[in-house]
Amino acid sequence: MLRCDQIRRRFQGPGGALTALEDVTFAADRGELVVIQGPSGSGKTTLLLTLGGLLRPDAGTMQVDDQDLYALSTAARSRFRARTIGFVFQLFHLVPYLSVLDNVLAGLPGSVDGAARRRTAALLEELGLTARLAHRPATLSAGERQRTALARALVKEPAVILADEPTGNLDPENAALVFRRLDAFRREGGVVVAVTHGQDAAPHATRTLRLERGRLAGSLPLSR
Ligand code: ADP
Ligand code: MG
């Protein structure tokens, strides 16, 4: 389903080239919630952006549903990403001037029809946001912001959700809620990859990997 093979990514810094990812290989199937743990600076965000088609690797391939993401044109990759991949970030990245409802509807790649509106309403109800539909992000608690961001990722019914420290700014109750919903998503056949420096995600993982200085511990080339 999701498969990356020998990914390498370097950045040019003032002191020369810095290797953020080296020889990263892994695959995740439907129904998996893979947690990648690693300290700050180990390459977690770089890996997640690469998995999501937002950052081209210097070497290696990245496939989602047998589609090689970086073989697509930029426009085609954007369309593919909009349909297939939902992102959840530590700092939520909601649109400040849109309401909760409009932030979530903005997660839909196509036009918004009646079925989409009903699905959105049900999701917001499930996430306890029905009383907040008209609120703007600035007037929400951190937990409500992250639930809104989660709804925005889920509403398009993506194949994959990529989460970058999704509970890093949440209290334990909201953190548990976020992982319970991600767990339900993967049980329905979705794939989740969550990266985190903490331990809070581990109980929800079907598999935990470790990233150290850009290398995945135990990472082996996949057989072809
Ligand atoms: P993490 O998310 O695990 O904290 P990152 O993926 O953000 O780690 O960063 C990994 C390494 O790559 C760090 O040393 C960081 O400074 C470097 N890095 C990340 N993005 C850039 C960039 N755009 N330009 C230069 N260096 C970067
Ligand atoms: Mg990071």
What does the model show?
The protein has one domain: Rossmann fold, CATH 3.40.50. The strands form 2 sheets. The protein has a 6-stranded mixed β-sheet, with helices on both faces. A 4-stranded antiparallel β-sheet has the order 2-1-4-5. It is 30% helix and 28% strand. It is built from 6 helices and 10 strands, in the order E-E-E-H-E-E-H-E-H-H-H-E-H-E-E-E. It is α/β, with parallel strands linked by helices and 224 residues long. The protein binds adenosine-5'-diphosphate and magnesium ion.
Keywords:
binds magnesium ion, four-stranded antiparallel sheet, six-stranded mixed sheet, alpha/beta, disordered C terminus, binds adenosine-5'-diphosphate, 224 residues, Rossmann fold
Give the helices and strands, then pairings.
Blueprint: E1 2-13, E2 16-28, E3 33-37, H1 44-51, E4 59-64, E5 67-68, H2 74-84, E6 85-89, H3 100-105, H4 114-126, H5 142-154, E7 160-164, H6 172-187, E8 191-196, E9 207-212, E10 215-216
Parallel strand pairs: 3-8, 3-9, 6-7, 7-8
Antiparallel strand pairs: 1-2, 1-4, 4-5, 9-10
Helix pairs in contact: 5-6
